[in-house]
Amino acid sequence: MTLRWMTLRWTTLRWTVPLLFAWACVPAAAQAPTPPAPTPPAPSPQSSISLAPIPRAFFGMHNQGHSKEWPDLPVGSHRGNPGPNWIALNPSKGVFDWRGLEERLARLQAHDADLLLNLGLYMPRWASSRPDVFCPDGNYGTCYPPRDMADWEAWVSAVVRQAAGRVKYWEIWNEPNDNGFWRGDMATMVDLARRAYRIIKAADPSAKILTPGVYSGPWGNENDGVEWTIDFLSRCSTGDPCADIVAYHAYPFHWFSLGDYKTLMAGGVVDPQRYELLGEQTIIDIQKYWNIAATFGLEGVWNTEGGLAVWSVKGTSREDVLDQSTPKNWELTGQFAVKATMLMQAGGVGRSYWYSYDNRGHGMLWQWSDDGQGTGLNPAGLTYRLMATQFIGATPVSPVARQETANRIRNPEALGAVSGTPGVPPDGWSLIAPDAGRGVNTSIAAGPGYIDIRVWGTPAAGANGMTRLEFEAAGAIRSGLDRQWFGSFHQSLIAGSYQHVTVHAGVVEYAEDGRTLGHGGAQTVPATALDHRRQRNLLMTRTRFAGCASVTPGLAFLYEPGKPFDITLRLSAPRLDDGTQWTGTYTKADGTALMLAWDSSSAGSTLAVDPRFTRYQDLAGTFHPIAGNRVALTVAPVLIVE
Q1: pTM of the prediction?
Q2: Which of 186, 266, 174 is nearest to 233 (CA)?
């Protein structure tokens, strides 16, 4: 991960969405009949996760090597970027230099931490199939496949032999969904993974192999790590296995609630309240990657890289960091670290590797000095240390989660649907198909508690480019400006594919007269064939348009003229509510209770707590007394203790 790549992803993805997701107006509908009690859904992919004490190894860290001393905070695992890697350990064909690996392993052993080693980062120039092509990651040939698979096997065999069981966790490649790191095809990546898997497991059957770590492209283009991972594991599902654990990178890529970050950054320190849901959006990708893990039978999900990217400081040079006048957004970074890290733990993510302890442009936790030696943790680093210190060894009683309010969707059971072409959607739901008669067809098949919706055809020239299904009628869910909404639904891919079609989830804002004002929460939601009751998909947004009177969530099928497509999704249990409190309870090793809590809205709220809780700690580490068994919650998390 490099700074320029994070900046590129923002500029190339963010501004394409409004054109693709310009939902049209739908008239209000009559109230649906009162439904019977819903049938309980099948267990979610995370339902079997153990509520065991949180291990030190959960708190992983990236260290760029600029700091000479060990990080001044609890670190249970290290993922090298840079670090022990192919280009450093195997500088020429048949020649290995293990000093870097041995030094790292000795240091980790001294600090009771382990190593996650990425095998494909970075490939030496001599091994590349395109050694004379400069790759965007800053090296020659590293983004292309090896020229000879024998060289890959020799490297994997040698490093596994040298590690001799001291490395238990292996990641295949870094961000292959980005052409800065991979320009080969999927078949070659699967081949690399299978060869590595066979070699590692033969040497150490207890070792764990991770899929290539991807980042999310929330609007369904070639950078979408969710779609990439589904494709990768689909190919690995027949023949020899490729991985044990799904790896992804937890950067905040769902910019549905954010304003113009360039303008806000230029103004100096970023007010965390201007960036509602920045950390909370973490739960979206957790659910997506768990859906994938459950589909293909992998045992877990890890975040192998994630942080707040370019948000740490206004500038990223040494001079910018050292300059006392440069705004440094430590408060925002610290809040994001606590929210994202603990929501991942609560969602069943096995490990979370922060990027990066000493990287100026990405989540820096440690202040540089002129001589390259550390001068101590910055305020964001102090917050991270406080979090890790409090939660290592703590046992979740009820892991931190959003406290939902009543479901505002009147007919989540999908009652009243009539099968046919085009069919009739459930009572209160709306099917908007402006391209009917323009080469696009729709049909609905009603089932117990769900519908199967098929959209197919070859769109004619001049087609609208979108068919959508909304789970409620305009005017039914009352809202206003600056209101947070959280939704979910269950789905499964029943037939067809995502070829030439993307499916977006979002929330539409309506004026009082039924006009569409705009949308929020737009993101792709690719499904697999896993049972729909086990594929929960999440969305969230903040209403942003003046005159917003109501909202409704739904799906949009997007396609292009002349490109044939055919997809059938099973949809069930839609939900939308406005709960903004996030709370969790834990028991520490000494038997005392600990709560983590915040309110994601700018309005804040008050939390009633048990009388045993006598004080709370803010993210700066200061304790405050609790009066009247009530704690005022804001966007900044607090630790409530006995």
Answers
A1: 0.91
A2: 186
Q: Nearest-CA neighbor of 23 among 421, 415, 348, 470?
A: 470
**CA–CA separation, 315 vs 306, rounded Å?**
20
Which H helix or E strand runs over 616? strand 615-617
Both structure tokens of 167 = 């490395």
d(CA 248, CA 286): 9
**Nearest one of 554, 486, 470 to 27, comparing CA atoms:** 470
Q: What is the tens place of the pLDDT at every residue in 495-537?
A: 999 999 999 999 999 999 999 998 888 889 999 999 999 999 9
Residue 134 to residue 175: CA distance in whole angstroms: 17
Q: Of 252, 314, 245, nearest to 280 (Cα)?
A: 252
Helix H or strand E segment including 235: helix 225-236
pLDDT at 375 exceeding the cut of 90: no
R_g (Cα) of the chain, nearest Å: 25
Q: What is the 3-state secondary structure (H, E, C) of 105-139?
A: HHHHHHCCCEEEEECCCCCCHHHECCCCCECCCCC
Both tokens of residue 493? 């891919």
Cα 98 from Cα 50, distance rounded (Å): 38
- DSSP-derived secondary structure for 280-327: TTHHHHHHHHHHHHHHHT-SEEEEEEE--GGGSBS--SHHHHH-TTS-
Give the number of other Cβ atoms within 10 Å of residue 134's Cβ: 12
Cβ-contact 511, 548 below 8 angstroms: yes
